[in-house]
Amino acid sequence: MKLFIRVMKALSDQNRVTILKLLGQKDLCVCEITALLGLAQPTISKHLKTLEDAGLVESARDGSWVNYHLADGKESTYAATMLDQVGGWLDDDPHIQKMMQQLPLVDRERIKVA
């Protein structure tokens, strides 16, 4: 039951669901997600930690970058099921549509990190 509750709590935040929708399109680093959502880097990192703890996202180092991607679902059937469902949900949501339009414009090489 604890893992189920952890997955549901992770999905109970608009920003975390938006992050999942974005990661469903391509792997992203924290700075790219920060630029897209317009939130502070520590806030994005906290959201990613919550999603990672729930088995919804994973990270992989690529040189100096840490890329986040959707988890493969092998750790949790709850996470796998919800990732499958969320992938098909909310495509008509104006906020999600806006993020999807902005996604191709984000370039990690051009983002200025303070």
Could you outline the blueprint of secondary structure elements for this entry?
Blueprint: H1 2-10, H2 14-23, E1 28-29, H3 30-37, H4 41-53, E2 57-62, E3 65-70, H5 77-88, H6 94-102
Antiparallel strand pairs: 1-3, 2-3
Helix pairs in contact: 3-4
Please characterize this protein's 3D structure.
- By secondary structure, this protein is of the alpha+beta class.
- The protein has a single domain, classed as Arc Repressor Mutant, subunit A.
- Strands 1-3-2 form a three-stranded antiparallel sheet.
- α3 packs across α4.
- The termini are far apart.
- The model has no long low-confidence stretch (mean pLDDT 92).
Q: For the record, what CATH class applies?
A: Mainly Alpha
Query: How many helix segments?
Result: 6
Are there runs of 5+ residues with pLDDT below 50, and where?
A: none
CATH H level, superfamily name = Winged helix-like DNA-binding domain superfamily/Winged helix DNA-binding domain
Largest beta-sheet details? 3 strands, antiparallel
How helical, in percent, are the residues?
Answer: 40-55%
Mean pLDDT across the residues is 92
How much of the polypeptide forms β-strand, as a percent range? 5-15%
- Coarse morphology: globular
- Distance between the amino and carboxyl termini: 41 Å
Let me know the number of strands.
3
Could you tell me the radius of gyration in angstroms?
Answer: 14 Å
**How does CATH name the architecture?**
Orthogonal Bundle
Helix vs. strand class:
alpha+beta
